[in-house]
Amino acid sequence: MLRWFITCCASVWLSGALATGTPTYEHQLPTVDDHPMHLVHWPGPKDSTQPPVLLLSGPVDTWHSDSAWFANLAPRLAQSRQVLAVDRAGMMTQNPDAPVGYAHAAVDVIKLLQARNIDVVDIVAFASSNLTVMGLLQRPEGPVDIRQVIMIDPDVLTPFSIARYKSDAQPFKDNLAEYLAYIGDGKYIPRSTQKNAADREVLTTLAGDDPWMDWTLVDTVFEARLNPVQQANTFLEIAGYGSDLDAVKAVTWPASIPLTIVDTDFEQHYIDNTDDAEAREGLEQWRADAKAYYQELVAASDKGRYVPVDSHAHLYQVEYPQQVVDLLTE
């Protein structure tokens, strides 16, 4: 039944809540820029004076990049304000013609907010979704007043790190036709199932018995990942990742927009798990490159904050959701 709902692209197709008294939410599939998008919407209190929070996701090691990564942050935020966890085109919908990628997501976000008469937002951007945020700064379709941005382990837009990201994505670009054929035959579903299990183990380890963790939301998103059309869209997006990087690498941060960057030490996990001296050196250089880039980026903002943390996990918002809430409200 769930997959039928995702295919049909109804405007609202599933709602839920953690327990009595916790914020309710809806999975919605609005048409934006002539294609369906998926978002999870928590309306928040009717009397809230705070702007909505826009949650934008990026990938973890499994390349999964969707609203599941906000399953215990969003309900906390929704106690006091409206929350929209927006998935990029094709990441949760069975649309074979989805305009995938971080660059187009900036267009979609602008049009989505305009359609909802939202002209002021706070943004929490995890991992590569900072590419969409940087794209928002370039869009002429506005105006959307970005009140503040929190980036968690964003992509490092320096020549060294961009080259590293492109190298990681190159196999997807080189072998795209073969991969899409394999996915089209349904052969990737077992592998996707294994990745879901790995992701769930990570979430369980990080969230523990957090009462705000919405496992129903997680399961709903994970099920959508098993659809071959969605899987093909993910591979298409990764194949175009290099172009998305190039599109925003020269964007400068406006001094007027407060920016907080949370820099975890997730690279240490990779360093500890390689015996290759050259690979270890590259990882250490990548970590140093990130620190320097982040500090430079926040320095461009009149209200910039660089927040280094010791966590070796690449899902800070899952491990320490309340700290993210505090950063938004400080």
Protein described:
By secondary structure, the chain is of the alpha/beta class. It has one domain: Rossmann fold, CATH 3.40.50. It is built from 14 helices and 11 strands. The chain has helices at residues 2-8, 74-77, 102-115, 130-136, 159-174, 176-184, 189-207, 215-224, 228-239, 241-248, 267-272, 277-299, 316-319, 321-329; strands spanning 12-16, 25-28, 31-32, 35-36, 38-42, 53-56, 83-87, 120-126, 145-152, 259-263, 304-308. The strands form 2 sheets. It has a 9-stranded mixed beta sheet with strand order 1-2-5-7-6-8-9-10-11, sandwiched between helices. The longest helix has 23 residues, at 277-299.
How is this fold's topology laid out?
Blueprint: H1 2-8, E1 12-16, E2 25-28, E3 31-32, E4 35-36, E5 38-42, E6 53-56, H2 74-77, E7 83-87, H3 102-115, E8 120-126, H4 130-136, E9 145-152, H5 159-174, H6 176-184, H7 189-207, H8 215-224, H9 228-239, H10 241-248, E10 259-263, H11 267-272, H12 277-299, E11 304-308, H13 316-319, H14 321-329
Parallel strand pairs: 6-7, 6-8, 8-9, 9-10, 10-11
Antiparallel strand pairs: 1-2, 2-5, 3-4, 5-7
Helix pairs in contact: 3-4, 5-9, 5-10, 6-9
The gist of it:
With about 325 residues, the protein is of the alpha/beta class. It contains 14 helices and eleven strands. The chain has a single domain, classed as Rossmann fold (3-Layer(aba) Sandwich).
